[in-house]
Write a structure and sequence with these properties.
This protein is mostly helical. It has helices spanning about 10-15, 25-50, 65-80, 95-120, 125-145.
Length: about 150
């Protein structure tokens, strides 16, 4: 009535010794590098919006040298986690600064929090300090947006 299954089960294939497996530490390194790379992209975007903002807009962000320095430190940590391979830096998009700045700070805050959680799991103090600093840096503009 039923045709027998002719392929191997996914469970027996997963147990095959010829498939390479990564250790938990390697998986955490990959995950942390991904979180930091995403944070780097948002940080670059925020910095680009700050440098393009004209002085006429009341709520336009001021150019932030700290964001550029943080982006460089984030890139260094990604390179350390990725065997010396620096991440590709995306070209920031064109767009209006005011409506997007709040959303970008929220995204950066979330990504920095995720990176902090993974760095804590890895017990990576350098990334923990950097991520905690970025969480605080993006929390201040979010508080300002919430009160406005």
């Amino acid at each position: 009535m039923y045709e027998p299954i002719r392929t191997k089960s996914v469970h027996t294939m997963a147990a095959a010794p010829e498939i390479p497996h990564r250790s938990r530490e390697e998986e955490l390194d990959i995950r942390l590098a991904g979180q930091l790379t995403a944070l780097l992209t948002v940080t670059d975007e925020l910095h680009a919006l700050a440098t393009r903002a004209d002085g006429g807009a009341a709520d336009a962000p001021a150019p932030d040298g700290a964001a550029l320095a943080a982006a460089e430190r984030i890139a260094e940590q990604v390179a350390r986690l990725s065997d010396g391979h620096y991440p590709l830096r995306a070209e920031p998009t064109d767009g209006a600064a005011a409506p997007r700045t709040g959303a970008l700070h929220q995204r950066a805050h979330t990504l920095a929090g995720n990176a902090l959680a993974v760095a804590t799991t890895r017990n990576d103090t350098a990334v923990m300090a950097l991520a905690a600093e970025r969480v605080a840096a993006h929390a201040a503009p979010l508080r300002g947006l919430a009160t406005a």
